[in-house]
């Protein structure tokens, strides 16, 4: 897998023709397309995809329940209004390519590794920045999130 191929897949999703920026708001059709893309990339690598109650997607290489604490890399795929191409998606693409590079080098991790796509990190739609990661850490209470 190459950076260019992954990036080319993402480039048109949510692109606003009048501004050149991206409008990839959480829980919209663009977001659904991006989540489907992430799931497909996880499947192509044989990674176990888990979606948590906050809507974050975790693509695991190894079993975090059986193998102890894991290592997580990644970012988010949503954007601010007319955001740039690299904010967020670069971390997700880099995480997937890291898995590819480790495998190509013949390495097997001693801990499980996940690539994460945090949901609604930019807060563009519901006004709460870092919603997905804040819910994981417990700093965004469930009731406040559901109220949005």
Describe what this molecule looks like in 3D:
The chain has 148 residues and is an alpha+beta fold. Helices cover 36% and strands 14% of the residues. It has helices spanning 3-10, 29-44, 89-104, 131-137, 142-147, and strands spanning 48-51, 57-61, 71-76, 113-118. β3 (71-76), α3 and β4 form a beta-alpha-beta unit. The radius of gyration is 15 Å and the shape is flat. The model has no long low-confidence stretch (mean pLDDT 91).
Quick structural summary:
The protein has 148 residues and is α+β, with helices and mostly antiparallel strands.
Topology:
Layout: H1 3-10, H2 29-44, E1 48-51, E2 57-61, E3 71-76, H3 89-104, E4 113-118, H4 131-137, H5 142-147
Parallel strand pairs: 3-4
Antiparallel strand pairs: 1-2, 2-4
The average pLDDT score comes to 91
Low-confidence stretches: none
What structural class do helix, strand and pairing data support? alpha+beta
The total beta strand count reads 4
Distance between the termini: 38 Å
Tags for this entry?
148 residues, alpha+beta, 5 helices, 4 strands, flat
């Amino acid at each position: 897998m190459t950076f260019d191929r992954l990036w080319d897949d993402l480039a048109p999703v949510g692109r606003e023709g009048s501004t050149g920026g991206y409008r990839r708001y959480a829980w919209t059709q663009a977001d659904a397309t991006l989540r489907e893309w992430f799931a497909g990339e996880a499947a192509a690598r044989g990674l176990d995809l888990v979606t948590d109650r906050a809507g974050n997607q975790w693509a695991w290489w190894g079993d975090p329940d059986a193998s102890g604490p894991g290592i997580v890399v990644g970012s988010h795929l949503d954007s601010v209004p007319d955001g740039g191409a690299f904010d967020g998606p670069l971390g997700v693409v880099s995480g997937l390519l890291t898995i590819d590079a480790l495998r190509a080098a013949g390495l097997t991790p001693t801990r499980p590794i996940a690539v994460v796509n945090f949901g609604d990190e930019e807060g563009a739609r519901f006004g709460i920045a870092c919603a997905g990661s804040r819910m994981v850490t417990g700093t965004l209470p469930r009731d406040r999130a559901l109220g949005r």
